[in-house]
Each structure stands twice: as structure tokens, then as C-alpha cells.
Amino acid sequence: MNNPIWISTATQCPDASPGSDEVGADLWQEVGLLASSEADLVQHVQRRLGLRSTAPRSAKGYLAAYPASPWVADVLSRYPGLQHGSGAADAPDRFWLAVDVTSGAATPRFLVGVKQARLTTLQRRPPEAHPGLIEPTVPLPISLPAAGGQVFR
Q: What does pLDDT average to over the chain?
């Protein structure tokens, strides 16, 4: 499971699906992957898809981010320690996060966070980038807040 991650920095969550021709789709940008090694986040996706009945209380983990993405480059320039697991404890940045659960299908399906995600600081060290990826990634620690026990809608 290396699902594409899209984010939007819009104040309100865009109604349009990322990558579509709908009005508002340009508010989304693909910024990286949800790696299968991020068990907490993956379990929340699986719970929303009905593949498991429970998920961890915490919805925190590392986003495998593309450094060439304009948003990622901006975040890394403002928080240089972020890719090493520190430096974002009080970051005011909030963003909508969408996970492509079909991962490249002709008609993608997205799960969108119920609330805005944020950059954070995690206690565990960042994972190593997968050596087989064509585009290198950097780890960005994120936190997804829940509402009503759900992280995604």
C-alpha cells in the first residue's frame, strides 16, 4: 500500500476530487505517498474502507513527501528540522489531506480527513525512504485529528 497523498491548503475542504476536471480540483496538489510502513495511518484507512473494525487512537505518522512538490519545498524551507523528526511542534500549518485508496485506477476514490491535518513532531525516528522508489521522498511528520471516532470521510 503506497497510496498517493494529496493536500489542500484551502480554508474550507474543497468539494472537488483531486486530479479531476471539476471546479475546485486545482485546490489539491499531490505531495507524496502513504507508505505501508505507517501502520497507524494505514489502519485508519482500512477501518474507513471496512477492512478492519478498530484503529489506533492516534492518527500520526510520516508522509513520504516528494521534495520537488512546491508545498513540501516550502514546508522544508520554513521548518528545516522537520524531515529529521523535529521542528514542527508549534507549526500553525493546517491542510486538508486526501488519500487515493485506488492507487492509480482509472476512476480514483479518495478518503478525505474529517478535520484539517497538521505538521507535528513525533517521538519515533523517521523511516528510511524505500530504495526502489523512482522519485525520492523525505519523511514529514503529520497528525490527523478525529471527529466522532473517525479520521476519514
A: 87
